[in-house]
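Input sequence (383 aa), recorded before submission:
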Amino acid sequence: MCAPIQSFQQFDAWSGARDLRRPGSSVIRSDAGMPTARFPRRAIGPLVSVLSLFAAHASADDVIVYGQSSWKYQVVAWGGQAGFQAPGFNDSAWTTGAAAFGNLSGCTPPSTVRTNWPSNTDLVARLRVQLPCGTGSVQIGVAIDNDISVWCNGVDVSGGIRTSGGCAVRDRFVFNVPDSALVAGENVIAVRAHDYGSVTFFDARVAANFQNVLRVTQQPASGTICIADSRTFSIVAAGGGTISYRWQIEEPSAPGGWADITNGDNSLPGDRSFSASGAATPQLTITRASGQDVIQLGHTARVRCAVSNACGSLSSNPATLTLCACLACPADFNQDGGVDGVDVQAFFASWEVGNCDADVNLDGGVDGSDVNYFFGVWEDGRC
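Predicted structure, token format:
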């Protein structure tokens, strides 16, 4: 599994439900009926992607909710359409139908019937679900009247056909999918719903745990480097296994291109240099290059962190570093070796636009106090 993502959304815990696990079985029976508390439902198509369902924390998450999925399906005679559960089965000619499937006879359905399923037939259906690398603990819950068999990527997760007596209820069965049956990317869920009476009903949900999915939970923040002549950028990443970090800086000659930062002095085209530490850790510190009085990166630069684990890699959002002159001699503002009227012009040109080079008193702001400080040292002709 190899396609990491950056974030996911956790659904609220179900309230009022109690699950009774059968000893020695992968099936969980629920006697409490429907869930009573959850996030708003999402419309899910035949190809379901979970990339938009992630946030900065991880736990069991409903990828598909009851009454909100669309399946490729066929209505067949009992036992018909052999081999349909194989991942590579061609279902392109099948009809697309929205869950729940059933008819309106007898029992009150636990969700609205949206696609007709005639009685005394089999409903064979397939759903493609996109899951990122690191996904685990997938569960498939079903509401069924009468019987059900479920596969994930061709693996029988229901242990054969499961028989349900009485009217359909949500989570009549909950099947645990082995992590070994999952793949990064497209996963195919296939079901055979079997009816032998007057009432038909089928609906399903899919839940998963994304704790091991690689993601950035705290992005590096932009900042300046003019007071202490250093700036530390931090990132927080989560995911399974060992996470590696690689800080990068945008190439000044090729916007959108990135160069790896190394510990110690770094040089870039255009006489740009800086020193760094923590280049392979969650915290990067940038300072002026060794022997330099002025940071030579220009006024701004963008940095980011590439994180990786066994699943793959992803990059943080770029953070902007505003690099100020941090002048060794503020009175010689233009650094031409003399203190004269040209320095006054250069100072006010920078001060009027709020350039942090004009923060000559190093208090973190560009304001009137910098004017007083500048003229104090300029009039004395001192640094």
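Checked by second reader. The helical segments are 341-352, 368-380.
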